[in-house]
């Protein structure tokens, strides 16, 4: 009798245990708790030049020179990478800033305009929208990953990272009137570094991880594929009988433009069998720890088009799991401010037009006086003198 009761209690414990496990699995599977990567907020913490001087002052390769604020937002692996590559932190901070600037530019005329939190107290940079696995989030991962690839590669060329420099390898056959030579931007280093640093921590059962990894890779791929050949003439008095050529990074604006195009054509996917994939990933990791390439292909293979009639996403397509909110009205849970008070373009039929921007609500018209510098003249030597011109401008504002 007593024995039986005990068995029942044990059984009950087992049941609650299983229920709890199931509950946890559901929470992580829906991705509700996804947060933006902490390192993103390096964009608002650090004044890059400050980081340099602190580093030089302490002249040590230990963790201690890290500003405590930065120590807090980096993972252990990321701190190790920063330690092993002196100078790279400044490049990462610059990258994060470029990403913010580029995002605001690309989305300036849209309902979601990439507003960021500037307050030092807020832990997040782009805000709660990142908790949703939507297109905007996909774009942010690709853009930040691309930006770090870009600034780290640039920093190698400039000689400001101790562990890398230009790429002097010759790249395949030369042409008839030109040959490879000189200092190519070391995209290999930037690409590898971004994969180690940016992808750190993106592992686990949550379907957000394969999505994030894919989009991070999309960002890097766009930097790589926009690399261009730059040449310089040699020969008698610039006759250009011989040219030397090297690989040069694209302007980051080009990468931003390309990723914005991918945003517009992004693929909605679902993640198949994330649990099994983790298990097989682990097995694979144990077998060949260094073979990251294979793991990447694995996570790529997990992404199936949400609509079976659509073709699978390519390596350069952004992928997302959930539809975007409409961004029309304030939503605290997702950190959305709504389009009340936003300026719209009365004659445009695009996303910046008043119909779409104001979500069908009214808008009002305001005439404002704009002051601008004009009729500037250069005066010897060396000042530029301008007049101030005033003119009236009609603006339309969403109610
Ligand atoms: C945020 O912190 C930086 C230094 O890290 C400081 O210069 C700035 O004034 C702070 N901003 C606010 C709004 O407190
Ligand atoms: C980048 O990684 C690839 C593959 O792991 C490796 O072959 C290559 O040497 C690395 N390049 C640099 C510059 O670190
Ligand atoms: C972005 O949108 C927010 C709210 O929707 C608005 O307050 C802000 O002024 C906008 N920024 C720009 C640059 O238009
Ligand atoms: C408004 O939209 C029209 C049509 O797309 C465009 O020609 C015009 O430059 C836009 N105005 C502003 C201020 O952006």
Automatic annotation (TrEMBL):
Chain intervals for the UniProt region annotation (Disordered): 270-297
Residue stretches of biased makeup (Low complexity): 272-283
The entry's keywords: Developmental protein, Disulfide bond, Extracellular matrix, Lipoprotein, Secreted, Signal, Wnt signaling pathway
Localization of this protein: Secreted, Extracellular space, Extracellular matrix
Keyword RNA-binding annotated: no
Chain's role: Ligand for members of the frizzled family of seven transmembrane receptors.
UniProt-recorded name of the protein: Protein Wnt
């Amino acid at each position: 009798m007593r024995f039986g009761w005990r068995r029942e209690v044990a059984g009950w414990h087992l049941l609650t245990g299983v229920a709890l496990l199931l509950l946890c699995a559901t929470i992580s599977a829906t991705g509700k708790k996804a947060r933006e990567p902490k390192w993103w907020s390096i964009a608002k913490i650090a004044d890059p030049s400050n980081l340099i001087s602190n580093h030089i002052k302490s002249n040590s390769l230990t963790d201690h020179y890290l500003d405590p604020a930065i120590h807090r937002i980096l993972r252990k692996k990321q701190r190790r990478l920063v330690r092993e590559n002196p100078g790279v932190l400044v490049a990462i901070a610059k990258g994060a800033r470029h990403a913010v600037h580029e995002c605001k530019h690309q989305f300036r005329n849209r309902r979601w305009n990439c507003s960021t939190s500037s307050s030092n107290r807020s832990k997040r940079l782009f805000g709660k929208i990142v908790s949703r696995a939507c297109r905007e989030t996909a774009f942010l991962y690709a853009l930040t990953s691309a930006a770090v690839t870009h600034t780290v590669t640039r920093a190698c060329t400039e000689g400001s990272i101790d562990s890398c420099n230009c790429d002097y390898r010759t790249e395949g056959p030369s042409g008839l009137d030109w040959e490879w030579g000189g200092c190519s931007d070391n995209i290999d280093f930037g690409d590898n570094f971004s994969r180690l640093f940016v992808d750190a921590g993106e592992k686990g059962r949550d379907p957000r991880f394969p999505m994030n990894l894919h989009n991070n890779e999309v960002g890097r791929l766009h930097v790589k594929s926009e690399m261009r050949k730059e040449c310089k003439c040699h020969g008698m008095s610039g006759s250009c009988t011989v040219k030397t050529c090297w690989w040069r990074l694209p302007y980051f604006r080009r990468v931003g433009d390309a990723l914005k195009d991918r945003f517009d054509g992004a693929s909605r996917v679902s993640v198949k069998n994330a649990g099994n994939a983790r298990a097989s990933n682990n097995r694979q990791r144990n077998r060949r720890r260094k073979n990251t390439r294979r793991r990447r292909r694995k996570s790529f293979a997990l992404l199936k088009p949400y609509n079976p009639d659509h073709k699978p996403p390519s390596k350069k397509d952004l992928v997302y799991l959930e539809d975007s909110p409409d961004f029309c009205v304030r939503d605290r849970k997702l950190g959305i401010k709504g389009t009340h008070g936003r300026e719209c373009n009365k004659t445009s039929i695009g996303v910046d037009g008043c119909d779409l921007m104001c979500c069908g609500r009214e808008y009002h018209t305001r005439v404002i006086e704009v002051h601008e510098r004009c009729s500037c003249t250069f005066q010897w030597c060396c000042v530029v003198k301008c007049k101030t011109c005033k003119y009236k401008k009609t603006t339309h504002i969403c109610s």
